[in-house]
Structure formats: structure tokens, C-alpha cells
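Lab channel / #folding
Pinned by the channel admin:
"Please post every new chain as: sequence first, then the C-alpha cells as a reply. Keep commentary short and put observations after the output so the thread stays searchable."

First post following the new format, from NK:
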Amino acid sequence: MSASLILAALHRHSAPLTATELHDLVVAVALDAGWPKRAWADLSPRKIAALLRGMEARGEVIRAGEAPENGRLVPRWGLEAYDATTPFPPPDLAEADEHPLHGMTRRQQFVLFDALDANLAAYTRMQRETTELVARHNRELADLAARTKRELMAVGLEA
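Reply from TO:
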């Protein structure tokens, strides 16, 4: 997670935010910008707070008061001046190249998806068969318990 991403999100919001609020905003803006999930999936409010402390030391952000969060006061982070036209940075291309389908032809993708569909169908069939088997087993156990109870009652051992 780069500082430029955090700065762009702060500029867009134009008001101080906590690390948690900033996390939610960064994820929303990344989704709107079409970023792949892998580019922001490891992002957390804790990581953003650590980045913000480093950015504060470099003079990139300022602490702008505190806000209650989960029963404690946490800093709100802001900028000296806001510019809503600050562009949102593009996702790191190295991360985009790591996509599992990167470099596959459409035909290879269809073959892969067909195999996945077949595996899903087999799994679904096995799950249905297992559910039916368990239901039959439970019926047989109930029948055995009822038969045992009748036989015990017939010889006077069960009330």
C-alpha cells in the first residue's frame, strides 16, 4: 500500500479521517477505480495507521484531532490543503501480472472453466449422495431403536 493511494483518498474526502474510515474509503475508491482485489486485499486499518504515522513523520499528513472508536480515542488524519482533483494512482502492474489467468488464451480459460464446472458438478453430486446416505442411515437407526424397544417390551424389560 503506497502513500500515494492514502493521499489520493484523503484528497478526495477533503476532511480528516481515522485509519478505519480511511481504510473503508480506500477500498471503496479502489473498487470504483477497477483495481483487482489482490492489490488491496491485505489492507487493514492497522497497516494504514502505521503508514500514516510514517507519513506524518515525513510531513505528508497531519493529525487533525481525535475520534472515539471502539471505546478509545484514535487520531484523525488530514492534509494541510485538499485537492479533489488529485488522481487516484493506478494499481501496481506487477500485481496485475500475477493474476492466475494472465497469459492464458481464451481457449485455455474456457478449458479451465469447463474443468472447474465438472469438478463442481461432481462435488455437488457427492454432497447430495452423502446427504441421502446420512438420511438413510438415520432412518435405519431410528427403525433399529424402535424394533429394539418393541422386542424389549415384548419380554417385559422396557416400560
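NK: The first helix runs from residue 3 to 13.
TO: also worth noting, The domain at 3-99 is CATH 1.10.10.10 (Arc Repressor Mutant, subunit A).
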